[in-house]
Design brief:
The complex is a heterodimer of chains A (224) and B (416). Chain A has eight helices and 14 strands. Chain A is 41% helix and 25% strand. Chain A has a five-stranded parallel β-sheet, with helices on both faces. In chain A, helix 2 packs parallel to helix 3, helix 5 packs across helix 6 and helix 6 crosses helix 8. In chain A, a hairpin with a 2-residue loop joins strand 8 and strand 9. Chain A folds into two domains: 118 residues, Rossmann fold; 97 residues, Orthogonal Bundle (Arc Repressor Mutant, subunit A). Chain A has 224 residues and is of the alpha/beta class. Chain B is of the alpha+beta class and 416 residues long. Chain B folds into three domains: 152 residues, 2-Layer Sandwich (Beta-Lactamase), CATH 3.30.450; 63 residues; 134 residues, Histidine kinase-like ATPase, C-terminal domain (Heat Shock Protein 90, 2-Layer Sandwich). Helix content of chain B is 56%, strand content 20%. Chain B is built from ten helices and eleven strands. In chain B, helix 1 packs antiparallel against helix 2. The two termini of chain B are 40 Å apart. The chains are: A alpha/beta (224), B alpha+beta (416). At the A-B interface, helix 1, helix 7 and helix 8 of A face helix 4, helix 5, helix 7 and helix 8 of B.
């Protein structure tokens, strides 16, 4: 997957690029509107990560540019503004998803993968990871070609883990992904354990490998 | 009391005093002038009588001058001071007594002294004074009436621009887009007042917008560093050499970031609510939303071994889905957070009322304080804005919200 990160905050940009630059992904970045437009006219990307609060102009201009030039990049907006109008405006003029700061890198990657999958749905509507096959359209999971029944949360969790395979994911990130960041979790994430345990058991019962490792004190890791 | 009433009252008092004083002075002046004239007449008659007596040279006792009474009496007094005095006058035609004026003097005739008293009627003069008094009183009453009417209608008319300005000031909302205009007035004072208010409102609105923008920008600017911290931590936890203890510290930092994020968002939302910026109303089936919420909080409930009891009847609301979500999140979250382990949360929705009831501490909370900003229990891990948001959302939609305590049960009741 080829990704362009447009973000003016240097450390944020570096962290994002480093996190995304795995599994053969090519991640490029720029810090302002004009170089971004230059890059978009020179190359094709699969996904564009766009901070709409750029110093040299409205980030939304990028969306306008992509639309007028009929380019097919998936766009994920990141914004410091949580307001509904901004979200709708972003999605209205052609963004595929909207992420509010602050966010977890795992969340960013999962959203980016989802945007990418949606864009590539015509050619590939199956997500295959070793013996696990996920039909993202039908929301069904097969392990070794035998289908398994997952609850909604387990399914979401599996997608989330696969998108972030090989990375340690904090319980906070998982909780925010599954229950939304509006919800006050009371800093108690013990209940995630039950869901992880059930997912792990279901995968292993169907003959899958044990991918899920608990990282004591912080969260989980889905071994890639 | 209205200014015009004050003015009317004062002006009527002053007018009344001045007019009454004027009337009294007027009365005495007229009286004095009329008396002077009578006295002059008497003096004339006295001279005529003396001349007549001297020329006729006979006993003047029977003397009668026209219809005026002149009485001559022989006297031994050698000297008598001429004097004018009030007396009664007998009108022979009307056969009745009237007020009269008389003069008394000494007339000498051949070494004999006569005291002469001439009396004339004062009725004409009294009549004149009466007529003048009546005219004056009528004028006075008329003047008062006119003053009253002028004050009542004219003054009210004069104050109309002021009242319009006042009305506009009352309706002035700092968050509104439309500015204070003020009806143009020809009266300098009102024109100046309008101008001053217009300038003030512009300044206030400008400052307010500035401050609002500042608050918004500050809140948003804070999100980027928080995003940097989060992503740095996300990167940091990939390090396999970190110990479990270090990772636990990081989990706590995540928790704090999450809290400051929510705090920030709550403050922004409060600001929006206060400025009435949320208008995306839609029809919401509250029963469905409540059922979803119970599902959403299910795991959180299980960690404290809590159970839900519910009795829900259908209810449609016209509100922002986002706000209703936040409202319920806060109420549910509180009912769970402040519950005892193994406690119960009872949710009832019927008619125009939603109540969320939970077991908890054995003392009542202070209803006055709990809805205030940053009022929270010592052990509470919340932002301290949850119930403030609840109250403001309720106010936004005109719902009533109150708290009740009954032997270990804490209830929040929402009336639509």
């Amino acid at each position: 997957m080829k990704i362009l990160v447009i973000e003016d905050e240097q450390s944020l940009r570096e962290n994002i690029t480093n996190y995304l630059n795995v599994d053969g992904n090519i991640c490029e970045s720029c810090s302002a509107l004009n170089p971004a437009l230059q890059k978009l006219s020179d190359y094709d990307y699969d996904c564009v990560l766009l901070d709409i609060g750029l110093p040299d102009g409205e980030g939304l201009d990028v969306l306008q540019y992509l639309r007028t030039n009929q380019k097919n990049e998936g766009v994920l907006i990141i914004s410091a503004r949580n307001s509904l109008e901004d979200k709708l405006k972003g999605l209205d003029i052609g963004a595929d998803d909207y992420l509010t700061k602050p966010f977890h890198l795992a969340e960013l990657k999962a959203r980016l993968m989802a945007v990418y999958r949606r864009k590539a749905l015509n050619t590939n509507n199956k997500l295959i990871f070793n013996e696990i096959t996920i039909d993202v359209q039908g929301r069904t999971v097969e392990v070794n070609e035998a289908s398994i029944i997952l609850t909604r949360k387990e399914y979401d969790m599996l997608l989330y883990f696969i998108a972030n395979k090989g990375k340690v994911i904090s319980k906070n990130a998982i909780a925010e992904h599954l229950w939304g960041d509006e919800m006050d979790m009371h800093d108690n994430f013990d209940f995630i354990y039950t869901h992880v345990k059930n997912l792990r058991r279901k995968l292993m019962d169907a003959g899958g490998k044990d991918y899920l490792t608990s990282i004591y004190g912080i969260g989980y890791k889905f071994m890639g | 009391m209205k200014l015009s009433a004050h003015y009317t009252r004062t002006s009527i008092y002053i007018t009344l005093t001045v007019l009454l004083a004027g009337a009294i002075i007027y009365y005495f002046a007229i009286n004095y002038i009329a008396q002077q004239q009578l006295d002059q007449g008497l003096q004339q008659q006295l001279i005529e009588a003396e001349e007549y007596v001297r020329s006729s040279n006979q006993d003047p006792q029977q003397y009668d001058l026209d219809r005026d009474h002149a009485v001559f009496t022989r006297t031994n007094e050698q000297k008598l001071q001429k004097r004018f005095f009030d007396t009664t006058y007998f009108n022979p035609k009307a056969q009745r007594k009237e007020a009269g004026r008389a003069v008394e003097d000494l007339v000498k005739l051949k070494h004999t002294n006569y005291k002469v008293v001439i009396t004339i009627s004062r009725a004409g003069q009294k009549y004149l004074i009466e007529v003048i008094t009546i005219i004056t009183l009528v004028l006075l009453a008329g003047l008062l009436l006119v003053l009253f009417i002028i004050n009542k209608y004219m003054l009210n008319g004069l104050w109309k621009p002021f009242q319009l300005t006042l009305k506009e000031i009352k309706q002035f909302n700092i968050a509104d887009v439309d500015q204070f205009k003020g009806k143009p007035s020809k009266v300098t004072e009102f024109a100046e007042l309008n101008e001053a208010i217009r300038e003030m409102s512009l300044r206030v609105t400008y400052d307010y917008l500035n401050l609002k923008q500042f608050t918004e920008n500050a809140s948003h600017e804070m999100m980027t560093p928080l995003a940097v911290v989060t992503t740095k931590l996300d990167t940091l936890i990939q390090d396999e050499t970190l110990s479990a203890g270090q990772l636990e510290q990081i989990t706590d930092i995540y928790g704090s970031i999450n809290k400051s994020t929510r705090l920030n968002q709550s403050l922004l939302l409060l600001a929006k609510l206060e400025n009435k910026l949320i208008t995306d109303n839609e029809s919401i089936n509250l029963k469905t939303v409540l059922s979803e919420k119970m599902l959403q909080f299910q795991e959180l409930m299980q960690t404290k071994y809590l159970s839900f009891e519910h009795n829900l009847q259908p209810k449609q609301l016209l509100a922002s889905k986002y706000l209703v979500d936040i409202l319920l999140n806060n109420l549910f979250s509180n009912a769970i957070r402040h519950n005892n382990t193994g406690g119960v949360v009872i949710i009832e929705l019927h008619g125009e009322q939603l109540s969320i009831k939970n077991t908890g501490a054995n003392y009542s909370l202070n209803e006055q304080l709990i809805f205030e900003r940053f009022q929270k229990g010592k052990e509470s891990q919340g932002t301290g804005l949850g119930l403030t948001l609840v109250k403001n959302i309720c106010q936004h939609y005109g719902y009533g919200i109150h708290y009740e305590y009954d032997s270990g049960w804490h209830t929040f009741i929402l009336k639509f």
